[in-house]
Design goal:
The complex is a heterodimer of chains A (213) and B (120).
Chain A (H helix, E strand, L loop, with lengths): L2 H6 L23 H30 L11 H25 L3 H31 L13 H33 L4 H26 L6
Chain B lengths: L19 H22 L5 H23 L7 H17 L4 H9 L14
The chains are: A mainly alpha (213), B mainly alpha (120).
């Protein structure tokens, strides 16, 4: 019995639906879990957009905005790692939908590992900036708001990466153990791609526009 | 009180027919776009022009990720429109505050006088 068949089965005689109630396919023919993660992604996307907008507002309103970044090496490596992790996540979801369980689990764990490397590189970068005297409310280059906005945006993203790594490991292990199925991999995959998508906006606006020449 | 039907639904994963080659091509496109942003960062253009170019590339990059990595292109058109219109509306309505930001920068109109400026 297919998914659609289950949903379109007539209700049990004991269950009385009110007149006019529609029992049929879910909205847009999208499964409930996937719809839930999409709604989360839309809401979370608005959160990040609001943070980046506030950052742009402050940067635009303060002509003396610091440009502390002199090397793009670290952020370029981080970008490469996150984009590659999106590819491995795709391969995990693809293997899951083809019922290739070992490959799906392997690619999920590789994605989690890449996420861990990304987080470690991010923390190393933070430590370097803190070592140069940058805190939430002070920095040696000028406008003190810079530290607050930088740590807020990158911190929020790093929190998402950390949460994503935990989710990847948890879902991957339960998928391997048979408690979760390929649809759960797909849901966590959507979340992971979203984390990657946000980074595509953080890099140019927070790092590259503040590159000291 | 109406009871909900006692139906257990095991949600199947969607089956996407995209080949690995297609994923790799899009991945390489994303890497190239990201690299272009880094090149622009070192170009000698004004901040406004640099911002516009980076925003354009970021939107293209995000579009590719949404449509193909997140499989939005493979979903029903209604769902694609729902996500784009809902998100786009939220993002566009956030933009109303920019005029205040320019007032902060330019100091006019209706802002507090800068310290040391004697008003006539």
């Amino acid at each position: 019995m297919s998914h659609a068949d289950v949903l379109t089965q007539p209700p049990h005689p004991q269950h009385h639906h009110p007149p006019g109630m529609v029992v049929g396919l879910p909205p847009f023919d999208v499964a409930a879990k996937k719809m839930a993660i999409w709604l989360f992604i839309i809401a979370d996307g608005a959160t990040f957009a609001a943070c980046l907008l506030a950052y742009g507002f402050l940067r635009n309103g303060n002509p003396e905005w610091p440009r502390p970044f002199h090397s793009i090496t670290n952020v370029a490596i981080m970008t490469f790692i996150l984009l590659t992790s999106s590819l491995t996540m795709l391969l995990a979801v693809r293997a899951g939908s083809a019922n290739d369980k070992p490959a799906a689990f392997r690619f999920t764990m590789i994605t989690a590992l890449l996420g861990i490397v990304f987080a470690l590189l991010h923390i190393r970068e933070w430590m370097g900036l803190i070592g140069e005297g940058m805190t939430l409310f002070h920095n040696p280059w000028g406008n003190p708001i810079f530290g607050a906005s930088f740590f807020s945006i990158t911190g929020l993203h790093l929190t998402h990466v950390t949460g994503g790594v935990i989710a990847l490991i948890a879902v991957g292990l339960r998928y391997k153990g048979g408690r979760y199925n390929a649809s759960d991999l797909e849901v966590v995959g959507l979340y992971w791609h979203f984390v990657d998508l946000v980074w595509m906006f953080v890099v140019p606006f927070v790092y590259l526009l503040n590159l000291g020449h | 009180m109406v009871d909900a039907p006692d139906v257990h639904i095991s949600e199947p994963a969607a089956t996407y027919k995209d080949s690995v080659g297609k994923y790799v091509v899009i991945y390489i496109c994303l890497l190239i776009i990201a690299a272009l942003q880094f090149v622009i960062a070192y170009s000698h253009v004004g901040t406004a022009a640099m911002f516009a170019r980076m925003l354009f590339l970021a939107i293209v990059e995000a579009g590719l990720a949404l449509l193909f990595f997140m499989h939005l292109w493979a979903e029903k058109r209604g769902f694609l429109l729902f996500v784009l219109i809902f998100t786009g509306f939220a993002l566009i309505t956030m933009q109303y505050g920019w005029t205040d930001s320019f007032r902060m920068e330019l100091g006019v109109p209706y802002t507090q006088p800068k310290s040391g400026v004697v008003q006539q």
